[in-house]
Amino acid sequence: MSTLWTFGCSYTGEYHPLSFSDGTPNNYTKFKDYRGGTLPEVWPHRLAKMLDLECKNFGMGGASNSQIFWNFCNVCDSIMEDDIVVVGWTQLPRFIIPESLDPNCRGFSPVHPNGFEHIQKSTSGFSKETLGEMIVEKSHPLWATVIYDWQDLMVDFAKSKKFHIFFWSSDSKIIYDDIHKLKNQKNYLLPEAKDGVISHVMKTGGKTVDSETKGVVQDYHLGDSGHQKQAELFYENIVHNLGLEKNKLL
Q: Most buried by CB count within 10 Å: which residue of 79, 106, 160, 195?
């Protein structure tokens, strides 16, 4: 059986019900409790079932675009002929820095435009002011062209190994602002999503965790209906672009 490989940030990754260091449950734990102890499948697993494929989901909450690209590079040798790959890019300004100044450090800390208070200058070497200035710099649309260069490389690699690859973004500044100018048009999912895929999913009937819980869990990632709608939309695009016969059991 062929495989669906998915890469991205928290809009691709699994729900991870955890607790913070003070014991406070995170939003996914609250969502699980609200649903009576279960969490819905995220869209990669639903899409894999629709396509009759196995699923390997490498979505990672908080990931930057460079981490998403690296995650693909780390496993690309294992992707086989006729497999399908879906890569979801994240916020353009996200970037990573080493976790500490220690030369033996082997890990990275993500820096997000909506919060980096956890990063201390004493360990990272970066002040809050510097990180804020770097976010402004990383927000420049020129950085999207770096992603498009990665895409061209990934498409060429996919052709050499005879697998199929598709791209989308949760940030409308990547792909959807420039989609008619880009190469490899058939490799983009939901080209009509002018405001980004997540907004498009919600406009077409998908809901967030916040909406599904009526505000009890204030989290704006996709809920059950949102993941179902995203899987359905991606399925329609992929089947059309690859000229596949639709699954008659759906």
A: 79
Q: What is the CATH number assigned to the segment(s) 3-92+141-196?
A: 3.40.50
Q: 94: burial class by Cβ within 10 Å (0-12, 13-18, 19+)?
A: buried
Neighbours of 99 (CB within 10 A): 14
Nearest to 167 by CA among 176, 39, 116, 110: 176
Pure H helices in the chain: 27-34, 43-51, 65-75, 121-124, 128-138, 142-161, 197-203, 209-212, 224-242
Per-residue HEC secondary structure of 162-214 comes to CCEEEEEECCCCCCCCCHHHCCCHHHECCCCCCCCHHHHHHHCCCCEHHHHCC
Structure tokens at 247: 């699954």
pLDDT of 209: 97
Q: Do you know the residue count of the chain?
A: 250
- The residues spanned by each domain of the chain are 3-92+141-196
Centre a 10 Å sphere on the Cβ of residue 40 and count the other Cβ atoms it contains: 20
The set of residues, in sequence order, having a beta carbon less than 8 Å from that of 112 and lying 6+ positions away, is: 62, 91, 93, 94
CB atoms within 10 A of CB 162: 11
Over its C-alpha atoms, the chain yields an Rg (Å, rounded) of 19
What tens digit of pLDDT does each residue of 175-221 get?
Answer: 988 777 787 788 999 998 888 899 999 999 999 999 999 999 999 99
